TrEMBL record:
The lineage of its organism: Bacteria, Pseudomonadati, Bacteroidota, Flavobacteriia, Flavobacteriales. Gene3D superfamilies: Immunoglobulins, Spermadhesin, CUB domain. Keywords: Disulfide bond. This is CUB-like protein. NCBIfam families: choice_anch_L. InterPro entries: Choice_anch_L, CUB_dom, Ig-like_fold, PKD/Chitinase_dom, PKD_dom, PKD_dom_sf, Sperma_CUB_dom_sf. Residues 184-243 form the PKD domain.
Length: 701
């Protein structure tokens, strides 16, 4: 900052040691820490009627000049005192700008096209009056080196689509780095968490308190005076009960290649798409998006949404009716040809693919504003289809009710609503309460799977398309699960107790990559399983399994690891027979007396015990007996069943109940023996010799 100084001795000292430049005619080679002042220097104003040209050049080859003005005031008026800055070593170079008054040049840099690296400054003042002038730092910079910033790790980890999902109030730990083509000495790292908060350093942690979508940015900056930097970003979804729809993180092409497709050897090409913004980018909505949820309130945690309206509005709560799009946004001819609909506001993504397995499949559900729990859903439905076309031009719609060729529509899937009866109710998911989570649509179907048999190696085209029908109101959306478009090589979701997919101990599970033509190497817990080279592996033990596969060098890959868990199966321990003495032959038996014997050392709170008349009833868990139980014959066999809380893991055992008459004790003769020589009055008697006499005619059995 320029200062007014009255001590002459200090002025002389400053001039004696300074390498600063005052505004004057000439060319000068300067760098930091030198400064550039008006002709009055650090402590005085410039003069009247000046017309001066100063050229400042860097001291070394491959450098260029940056002027950073931290003070600038010249006189205004009819003929203002004006500075002109040129991008070169004289005034014939391109004019960067002209400045007067308090309109400061700020930071001015020689351009990359300026081979001299110099800046030329021309200053013209009028004949009377001055401003306080200027002060600028002179910096010599080199061209920016190549910098690649990288967000290396997060805790929790990003999902397969590269997105971090957390709940409100949870924290994410970030770790970043950068590579520099020349020198990273003195580099700095900064974080912007997308919610107004920042941090410094290569590692940072941040707590996100509010549901929403946040783009977290890492900026790596080197020590170059011009501040050369590079950035990397990651998306954090902070999830409430409502799903979040994002239309910025993924392009439609990336939604197919990075989100929908889950096959390391998938050959996907010719991705094309169309939606409202294709016809009017300003006034029509985008019907394509990426959705993410908490995995609890909605069946899918993430995936692709196609909508006949604005996909960004698909997330809950259900506090409005979405009816976006005008007649400017047309329907789809293929959908009209397939379903005979009057189509408007069509959104589609279409792509070619070559399967490696003999079938394809993906999971989806349809949601719509035309679900109303009343008469509207009896008459109106938007339309969608998954049109699979083979190399011969044969087209099949995969969006059909399972086992039929009936298209999936609101009018084809709903419960009894009091106006019309239920139809395919088993495929209906639920209604969304007003202002409720997780989506804006009033209802949805259950999760369904689109599937088709295909020929490995043949080329196919699939078109995923949805549109309004008959009008542009009451939009619908189809949600497709991320990673579920399986072209081969995928082992599916983890099989876990928590997810309710684990089988019982002793059950054989089959893992199948469906890549029958490939050679496989299977692994359990990182250790190769010797001799297993086919696409199928039978699993009987818990662990983490995966497979490497090779299509004779044409394609190699690895199936994503799958966690397999088994539930502990209960053991039905032997139980004693129950006997009651009876005159009538029928009695009430407390079957629960055998609970403890059946359980043994197993914890009672972990298992359910029931009793049945037959072994098959016990296996099927039907016809459980109440206790006390009155026998119908004697002896009568009873089957005991012990099962876990899900009733899927169980074991059975049997015992008898008998209501028998009281036995008759017949008189038996006394027994006498002569004492031995000891004459002690004691001898051994064989009491069993009396059994026949006591029983008389009664059976020993």
């Amino acid at each position: 900052m320029k200062k007014i100084l009255f001590t002459i001795a200090l002025v002389v000292s400053s001039l004696g040691f300074s390498q600063d430049i005052l505004m004057e005619n000439g060319t000068f080679m300067r760098c930091a820490p030198d400064k550039f002042y008006d002709s009055g220097g650090e402590f005085g104003p410039y003069g009247n009627s000046e017309n001066l040209v100063t050229t400042i050049c860097p001291q070394n080859d491959n450098e260029f000049i940056i002027l950073d003005f931290n003070l600038f005031v010249t006189q205004l008026g009819a003929t203002p005192d004006t500075m002109h800055i040129y991008d070169g070593d004289d005034t014939t170079a391109n004019l960067i700008g002209s400045y007067s008054g308090t309109n400061s040049p700020g930071t001015v840099s020689a351009s990359g096209a300026n081979t001299s690296g110099c800046l030329t400054i021309e200053f013209v003042s009028n004949e009377s009056g001055q401003g306080s002038g200027w002060e600028a730092d002179i910096l010599c910079a080199t061209p920016c080196q190549d910098i690649i910033a990288s967000i290396d790790n997060t805790t929790p980890e990003a999902n397969g689509s590269g997105v971090v999902g957390i709940l409100p109030g949870e924290s994410v730990d970030f770790s970043g780095s950068a590579t520099f083509s020349l020198d990273g000495t003195g580099a700095t790292y900064s974080w912007n968490f997308g919610d107004g908060n920042t941090a410094i350093g290569s590692e940072a942690s941040h707590t996100f308190n509010t549901p929403g979508t946040y783009t977290v940015t890492l900026t790596a900056t080197d020590a170059n005076p011009q501040g050369c930097s590079a950035t990397d970003t990651i998306t954090v979804f902070v999830l409430g009960p409502n799903i979040v729809v994002d239309q910025d993180t993924f392009s439609p092409e990336q939604l197919i290649e990075d989100v929908l497709i889950n096959s390391p050897c998938a050959a996907v090409s010719n991705i094309v798409w169309s939606t409202g913004i294709s016809f009017d980018p300003v006034n029509e909505p985008n019907g394509i998006g990426y959705f993410y949820g908490d995995g609890q309130s909605f069946p899918f945690q993430e995936g692709l949404i196609l909508s006949s309206g604005d996909a960004s509005k698909a997330g809950g709560p259900n506090d409005t009716t979405v009816s976006d799009g005008s007649m400017t946004w047309p329907g789809d001819a293929d959908l009209i040809a397939e379903l005979g609909t009057e189509s408007y506001n069509a959104t589609y993504i279409q792509f070619d693919f070559t399967p490696l397995a003999d079938s394809i499949s993906f999971d989806f559900l349809m949601a719509s504003e035309e679900y109303d729990g009343a008469g509207f859903e009896c008459q109106y439905s938007d339309a969608f289809a998954f049109l699979l076309t083979d190399s011969a031009g044969n087209t099949t719609n995969l969006a059909v009710i399972p086992g039929t060729t009936t298209p999936i529509k609101v009018t084809n899937i709903h419960p009894d609503n009091g106006v019309c009866g239920a139809i395919n109710e088993e495929y209906f998911g639920s209604y969304t309460p007003f202002n409720g989570a997780p989506i804006v649509y009033d209802g949805r179907t259950a999760v369904m799977t689109a599937q088709a048999n295909v020929i490995p190696g043949e080329d196919y085209t699939i078109k995923l398309v949805i549109s309004d029908d008959r009008d542009t109101a009451f939009d619908s959306g189809v949600f497709i699960k991320a990673g579920s478009f399986n072209l081969g090589g995928d082992l599916g979701d983890d099989i876990t107790i928590e997810a309710g997919t684990a089988e019982c101990d002793g059950t054989e599970l089959t893992l199948d990559t469906r890549l029958e033509l490939a050679t496989h190497v299977w692994y359990k817990d990182g250790v190769e399983i010797e001799g297993e080279t086919s696409s199928i592996l039978t699993v009987t033990e818990p662990g983490i399994y995966y497979a490497d596969f090779d299509f004779s060098g044409v394609c190699t890959g690895s199936a994503e690891p799958i966690l397999v868990e088994f539930k502990d199966s209960p053991t039905a321990n032997p139980v004693p027979n129950l006997v009651i003495c009876s005159v009538t032959g029928t009695e009430e038996f407390d079957l629960t007396q055998n609970d403890s014997a059946l359980l043994g050392t197993q914890e009672p709170e972990n298992f359910n015990v029931s009793y049945h008349l037959s072994e098959q009833d016990a296996i099927d868990n039907v016809g459980a007996l109440t206790s006390p139980y009155t026998n119908i014959e004697t002896p009568q066999t009873i089957w005991a069943r012990i099962a876990d809380s899900t009733q899927t893991c169980f074991d059975v055992s049997s015992f008898t109940v008998s209501a028998t008459g009281a036995p008759t004790v017949n008189p038996a003769p006394n027994m006498e023996l002569c004492d031995d020589n000891s004459n002690d009055g004691f001898e051994s008697f064989d009491l069993s010799a009396q059994t026949a006499s006591i029983l008389g005619g009664q059976s020993a059995a």
